[in-house]
Amino acid sequence: MQDSIAFPANGEAPQGMRGYGHYHERYRRVDGRWRIQTMTLTRLRIDLFEGGLPDVCTGSATG
């Protein structure tokens, strides 16, 4: 899989990331239909945008 998460730049360098990886899924049959029981995302690589990540993503607290 490949995804991008972007945050508003407000005129500054773009913030966000592009991630690469794969999913591992486990299925279960319920009432004759296959359903996803568990899904795990494993990221193999994360490339940060020029502005990095906003503080809300890194767990930093202010004020």
Characterization of this structure:
- The protein has 63 residues and is mainly beta.
- The protein is 6% helix and 60% strand.
- Strands 1-2-3 form a three-stranded antiparallel beta sheet, with no helix packed on it.
- Strand 1 and strand 2 (15-30) form a beta hairpin.
- The longest helix has 4 residues, at 55-58.
List keywords for this structure.
63 residues, mainly beta, 3-stranded antiparallel beta sheet, elongated, 60% strand, single chain
Outline the fold blueprint.
Layout: E1 2-7, E2 15-30, E3 33-48, H1 55-58
Antiparallel strand pairs: 1-2, 2-3
DSSP strand (E) fraction?
A: over 45%
Task: Compute the CA-based radius of gyration.
Answer: 17 Å
Helix content: under 10%
Question: What sort of overall outline do the alpha carbons produce when their principal axes are compared?
Answer: elongated
Mean pLDDT: 89
Unreliable residue stretches: none
Secondary-structure element string: EEEH
> Class by helix and strand content?
mainly beta
Largest sheet: 3 strands, antiparallel
* Intertermini distance: 37 Å
Q: State the helix count.
A: 1
Number of strand elements: 3
Strand order of the largest sheet: 1-2-3
Provide a concise account of the structure shown:
The chain is mainly β and 63 residues long. It contains one helix and three strands; from the N terminus they run E-E-E-H.
